[in-house]
């Protein structure tokens, strides 16, 4: 689904602001299509006891105030390793991407590194060569670009970013993934976007399933950071 500012509890506005900040594509050509998708993952992250207790006492109004006042304040309390540890693995995307059967990184793992990906049967592709464009462990942003392979996703690039949120009274993660790709000859923009969005939705659902399963296994009491 596309993030939009629907005014319901400010959630849509928060998503739209993240999309504007990290996913806006100003160089989109007429022969390309682009979209942003959002996924809410119920994967608890470590939370300091002082913040947890204060939030329980004051409630969602306190959380909303903190969130709007300073994103960096929330980042101090949240540990994204549960979800981010899966997303950041440029060398092992098959950990959560169901359509990838094998991945080999060529050379050292760094910005500009290439990976050769084997695609599972059932898709109109067999291989993909992808370059690591950005890996930001502080902002939790990963960007890749497809530079070759046996498929029709020409000039494909994507950005995925992670952000803290509260889901059902527990810490969770908001994931936003955007892409730009050329529209193949014989296809429309709507057809191309529909196909790519379907793939990303499957990947994000799998990311949620894996992360939430790990979260259930690792769930502990909040950690006192004093």
UniProtKB/TrEMBL annotation:
Keyword terms, alphabetized: Abscisic acid signaling pathway, Cytoplasm, Nucleus, Protein phosphatase inhibitor, Receptor
GO BP: any one term: abscisic acid-activated signaling pathway
MF terms in GO: abscisic acid binding; protein phosphatase inhibitor activity; signaling receptor activity
Record has Aminoacyl-tRNA synthetase as a keyword: no
An example Gene Ontology CC term for this record: nucleus
InterPro entries: Plant_def-hormone_signal, Polyketide_cyclase/dehydratase, START-like_dom_sf
Subcellular location field: Cytoplasm; Nucleus
Superkingdom: Eukaryota
Predominant place of localization: cytoplasm
Family indicated by similarity: Belongs to the PYR/PYL/RCAR abscisic acid intracellular receptor family.
Name of this chain's protein: Abscisic acid receptor PYL8
Gene source species: Salix brachista
